[in-house]
Amino acid sequence: MLADLGIWTSEQDNMPIKDTWPYPKFVAHRGAGKIAPENTLSAMRLARSMGYSMVEFDVKLTNDDVLILLHDSSLARTTNGSGQAGDYSFAQLAQLDAGSWLGEAYAGETIPTLSAIAAYTIANSIASNIEIKATPGLETLTGTRVARQAKQDWANAEIPPLLSSFSEASLLAARLEAPGLPRGFISDELPENWLELMNRLECVSLHLRHSAVTQPVIQAVHQAGFRLAAWTVNEPQRAQQLLQWGADAIITDAIDRISPV
Ligand code: G3P
Ligand code: MG
User: Fold this and answer.
1) Ligand 1 atom closest to Cα of 164?
2) Beta pairing, strands 183-187 & 205-209
3) pTM surpassing 0.70?
4) Structural domains counted in the chain
5) Which residues are catalytic?
6) pLDDT confidence of 11, banded at 50, 70, 90?
């Protein structure tokens, strides 16, 4: 199928995303895993250079309502700043070095905005999985803002971004704001009420920690009409096994050892 290759066709326009699933099977986690500074433009560029045509990244709000890429609530691990990212304005955060923590080659790397990453990925035909990773307490607001911005930034993109989150509140807010954008529910384990959750949040995909994924789980998810993405799969053999079982996407840090081509 063309959709398996990530190629969109016009007759797919009116079909639900969970049926057409225009996304590649290999997804670079946080851009380039741990090989380039996570959630930066350099990471996205590296993923592309390694043949990846889809990236996952984490998005949260600054205190002046700008959407930025950052995994942790705290700035300490991946920047030379300190404190909570959500307490600062974008202008303040833009002064930080988000690359040196990984190596001098990345000194001066900045925290990107969601819109900057949209521009880069769309121009390079890279599909995006936007994880809504709200600062605690801001789940609903962040879900609304991400959906609004994504709708705008990806308005003319070939493939819509897949919005995902561990947070039900963020996904509900995203659904209200941009019902047409596909959503994925992320979980460490298969929740007992997964089917009810998927239906209530109107998700197209379930994103499970790979250790919770078995062949019967994939079969059950498919049987119910949903897609399954597994994270973070860093061993090539495990990636191969999951794909053989029918996983729809493998989200990996190991972009140097797991090749999409
Ligand atoms: O989107 C899947 C994965 O990124 C979830 O975990 O903590 O790496 O954002 P985390
Ligand atoms: Mg993530």
Assistant:
1) 1
2) parallel
3) yes
4) 1
5) 29, 71
6) low
